[in-house]
Specification:
Length: 337
């Protein structure tokens, strides 16, 4: 019997089937927005960020031939982006791969990431993707690790421009004044509101739907696909497409994730992240158009900002304050247009 087992094991090694004798490694993927349970459902009801999640999962599982399985945890099950990052810093190992808003890393020593949320830095999505493929983007991806944070930047992407949506009709900057507005609780976004003469009300993303429903806040902002995928149109059916900043995103891998992987498997994770972001570039425009059409069909009011010069002037102070000392980086990004 032992001899037979030895022969079978030798054959398995020869055929590269050792994975059949071991449990796969499970990597938990954290996403604050909903992620449909199947690829088919995602095609119909997903968003840009759920596309990224599914592209990463399918590619990594394919590359690893089943040695690695990705467990997609959407809808903020593991907490808000800020909570997940704080938990990682505290030694929590429940998240392995995290999709975050790229600017969030500015609060963790990655100072250059401030450019990824400043108002009106990227004149178009084509401009942004030129940046993503530049050496400057690679330098910025590496910054968090270089300052000692327990994660590695894998790849950049985007989920479309961010717009304001509200319980009342909004068409101009003046319409925002006096409203209780929820944005991410960071100096850039709160500074943006200050420039617009609006008031900031702190609410976690997970509580935003109920906060809008009950009137705790009147207004918030998200990319149009996230607005739809979170059903915010049900409680705030007015959108103003001002595109005040681009929804830049990043995939990161925690140190605890990489600690359980071989160098070959780490390379697979990187390849899967690159693939997911390439798919993001392909899908983002179509997803936004599809979301827009669905919102119109649902009866939402969507107003367009035709002239952004007034908005750019109003938010000029927060831009200038945050590029101080890093003007060369700003000029390099602008030169990519």
């Amino acid at each position: 019997m032992k001899k037979l087992f030895g022969i079978l094991l030798a054959l398995a090694l020869l055929l590269g089937c050792t994975a059949a004798f071991a449990d796969p490694i499970t990597l938990t993927y954290a996403e604050v927005n909903p992620v449909p349970a199947t690829l088919e459902e995602n095609a119909e009801k997903g968003s840009v960020v759920s596309d990224v999640a599914w592209a990463f999962k399918t590619k990594l599982e394919e590359l690893s031939a089943g040695e690695i399985v990705v467990d997609l945890q959407g809808g903020g099950v593991l907490g808000s982006e800020k909570e997940v990052l704080a938990n990682i810093l505290g030694g929590d190992t429940s998240a392995d791969i995290v999709r975050i808003s790229a600017f969030a890393l500015n609060q963790y020593g990655a100072k250059k990431s401030v450019f990824l949320t400043l108002p009106y830095v990227f004149g178009s999505e084509e401009h942004y993707w030129k940046f993503v493929k530049s050496d400057l983007a690679k330098e910025m991806l590496a910054e968090a690790k270089e300052v000692g944070q327990p994660w590695t930047g894998l790849a950049y992407g985007e989920e479309g421009y961010r717009h304001f949506f509200s319980k009342v009709d909004i068409k101009t900057i003046e319409d925002l004044k006096g409203l209780k507005i929820r944005v991410s609780d960071d100096p850039i976004m709160t500074g943006l509101l200050q420039g617009l003469g609006a008031s900031f009300t702190p609410v976690s993303f997970g509580e935003l739907y109920s906060a809008l429903q009950t009137g705790v806040v009147d207004c918030a902002e998200q990319p149009i696909t996230n607005y739809l995928s979170n059903s915010f149109q049900e409680v705030a059916p007015y959108m103003l497409r001002d595109g005040h900043t681009l929804g830049t995103i990043e995939l990161i891998a925690t140190d605890s994730c990489f600690d359980k992987l071989s160098d070959e498997q780490k390379a697979m994770v990187q390849e899967a992240a690159d693939y997911a972001m390439a798919e993001c570039e392909k899908s983002v425009m179509a997803r936004q158009e599809d979301a827009y059409n669905k919102l119109i069909e649902m009866g939402c009011t969507v107003n367009e900002v035709e002239d952004k010069s007034v908005w750019q002037e109003a938010t000029k102070a927060v831009l200038e304050a945050n590029i101080a000392g890093m003007e060369e980086i700003y000029e390099a990004i602008m030169a990519l247009q």
